[in-house]
Amino acid sequence: MLLRIQQIIYCHKLTIILTKWRNTARHKSKKKEDELILKHELQLKKWKNRLILKRPAAEESNFPERSSSEVFLVDETLKCDISLLPERAILQIFFYLSLKDVIICGQVNHAWMLMTQLNSLWNAIDFSSVKNVIPDKYIVSTLQRWRLNVLRLNFRGCLLRPKTFRSLSPLKQLTVLNLANCVRIGDMGLKQFLDGPASMRIGELNLSNCVRLSDASVMKLSERCPNLNYLSLRNCEHLTAQGIGYIVNIFSLVSIDLSGTDISNEGLNVLSRHKKLKELSVSECYRITDDGIQAFCKSSLILEHLDVSYCSQLSDMIIKALAIYCINLTSLSIAGCPKITDSAMEMLSAKCHYLHILDISGCVLLTDQILEDLQIGCKQLRILKMQYCTNISKKAAQRMSSKVQQQEYNTNDPPRWFGYDREGNPVTELDNITSSKGALELTVKKSTYSSEDQAA
């Protein structure tokens, strides 16, 4: 009994101590906030007084007497000095500006120049927005100055010279690099970057449309990028099965984009040895077949995203393979695959319950039945795209729109570049020529009518 009383007294004592400590901490925190607000108010007051003293007396005589509303607007304007805001708020404002705008802001006055030199502001630099304006000399000097702060770089579409590309090498903190559409980059140029310390921390690398790159660059990536998670080699035409073999050696890789490349079933079989890939894009890869996709799915049980759009040679077999082996699938694009039918999609709906994004645009054999299956099996579906689905009725699409957050739908005929008509039959070159001729005649008629109207 005595021990119990001692425990109660001890707990009560601890409660009193903690209450006092909490009140003291709150008081100190409030006092600190009040001091900070007072400091900003004093700075604002000094700035306004200094501005009033500098205003020449002659300026007032040159203007007529202002109304009370005008005086109020002027006073409100004087209060808006963002240099007096906290650093976090200033950064939030400048993050909305392009690189060109930030440079212009730094030329306003000394206070604005100091704001544009905040280290956090240069964590991400987008040179793509000023690729036709800014010279290479400025790019090099900017990267040299902020080399310890740069985390993300965007050079999309920039025509980089070898000397400029070499300046990326010392960026030790760089984690994201976008070189998409940099058509001048070759194996030697990429090697200069990869030989530097920046390659060791790089996590995302976009090399889309860098058409000069070959297997040598992929080999270098496997040697120098141990932390690479995302890699895009879209439309890198010189990539072969040997290069795919080097990709397998990038053990940290979870996402790969090989769309528009010359990859074949052999390459997919090699890639299936990776075992850790969660995202694969092989859109517009015309050499792969059902067998290649099936072999990859068997070894990629953790696959979450697959894009095989515009591979018109693929059939129901790949959908069945996904339903059997890749039940964790969350995103699937089979747009432009005219051989996919309701029976395969029914199997997918019954197995892949975590599907969030589905693109079936151009799957002309699918009917209203697929929407019923999706409603039953894929209750987590959020985005559904079904453009050019000629056999799905408008009524069924309207019912489905209430089940998803975003939906795209029409029953138009597939465009000619899809390579097939509304029934899934291949479009011959003669059809394309006839179609082009008809469009040309229509254009001529329209232009003729327009000129006659003008003449009238």
From TrEMBL:
<dbReference type="InterPro" id="IPR057207">
    <property type="entry name" value="FBXL15_LRR"/>
</dbReference>
<dbReference type="InterPro" id="IPR036047">
    <property type="entry name" value="F-box-like_dom_sf"/>
</dbReference>
<dbReference type="InterPro" id="IPR006553">
    <property type="entry name" value="Leu-rich_rpt_Cys-con_subtyp"/>
</dbReference>
<dbReference type="Pfam" id="PF25372">
    <property type="entry name" value="DUF7885"/>
</dbReference>
<feature type="compositionally biased region" description="Polar residues">
    <location>
        <begin position="403"/>
        <end position="413"/>
    </location>
</feature>
<feature type="domain" description="F-box">
    <location>
        <begin position="79"/>
        <end position="125"/>
    </location>
</feature>
<protein>
    <submittedName>
        <fullName>cDNA FLJ38068 fis, clone CTONG2015358</fullName>
    </submittedName>
</protein>
<dbReference type="InterPro" id="IPR032675">
    <property type="entry name" value="LRR_dom_sf"/>
</dbReference>
<dbReference type="InterPro" id="IPR001810">
    <property type="entry name" value="F-box_dom"/>
</dbReference>
<dbReference type="Pfam" id="PF12937">
    <property type="entry name" value="F-box-like"/>
</dbReference>
<keyword id="KW-0833">Ubl conjugation pathway</keyword>
<keyword id="KW-0433">Leucine-rich repeat</keyword>
<feature type="region of interest" description="Disordered">
    <location>
        <begin position="403"/>
        <end position="424"/>
    </location>
</feature>
